[in-house]
Amino acid sequence: MEERRGDVGIGHGRTAGPGDGPPPAAVGGDERRRPGGTPYRIVSFVGRTLRGEWHGMVVEPFRQLLRRGLSGLVLAFVAAFGVIFFHAIAQHPTGATVVRLTGGVKAALPLPLALLRTPVSLYVPALDLPVWAGITQLFLAFALAELALGRARTLAIAYVTTLAGTLTVRVMIAMGPGWWGLGLPPETGQVLDTGPSAAVVGLFTYLAVVRRAPVVFALTGGSMVWESIVRPNLAGREHLIAVAAAIVLGLLHGRWRRPVRALTVLLHSRRAENRPTGGPDLSEPQAPPAAAESPAQAGAPAAARPPALADPPVPAHRVNEPRAQLR
């Protein structure tokens, strides 16, 4: 038979058979165009991580700020102006006494009084730290947290991380000196423990864990570790405790809803099982019971009874008519 011209060669319309190899141009084309190896994977991973961190820590909060306006920065303004207010009052002797009595927290104080003063102590600046530099960090931490987490969760994280440091210091003082450096001497209980630094560290760490921001996490946690090494004081320990508490809260983020939902379903099922089945359903409205007749109404003649209970009157023109007999 005569062979067609279009069937000659793979490139002239003939389908490649199983014995034919791939086209020369396709062999190793992707491998030659795409750089391979470990350096490329590392650079790609770092790029994706930084892009995701930029989107989660900057882009999304900025979108929320454009959508909500200045109402999304209420906590940040309140925290900043609160620190400025208490700092201005503390410059006078009478004001310093008021600040100490309302927001001064020490480990030597009774626990109920310390818990009562802890929310106010967030706005009392520490004496050994620069106020205006700390206000910038405070405003940025509360602004990002409020835009990304909401007001209620921001306040909860700030208070829990601060309270964790305050309570853990009490445990360390109760342990006493020693314990491989974990215990503290009793004199530490007289050190004034105020300032929003633990809340700021806790908010940044919580955001870094929830938003998967390793750069922010390294800067926050690394700086706290370096501070505790260079200046081993009470504030450094509380900052490390705040970081640890924020990590735990960040890892538990979104996982408490399932147990709560399961517990709610279990309680509803138990309530449905314990509900009596033979008695009347109390959820449906029932008709009021009929009123009982009084003795006077029972002995009265039919004409004197109410119209609803008396026999209907017979018309005069039908009195003499014969009644129909029943079959």
From TrEMBL:
Chain spans, region Disordered: 1-38, 272-327
| Keyword presence, Transcription regulation | no
In what ranges is there compositional bias, type Low complexity? Answer: 289-308
Provide the leader sequence positions. none
Biased-composition ranges, Gly residues, are 8-19
Give TM regions.
70-90, 129-149, 156-180
Annotated protein name in UniProt: Integral membrane protein
Q: Species name for this entry?
A: Streptomyces kaempferi
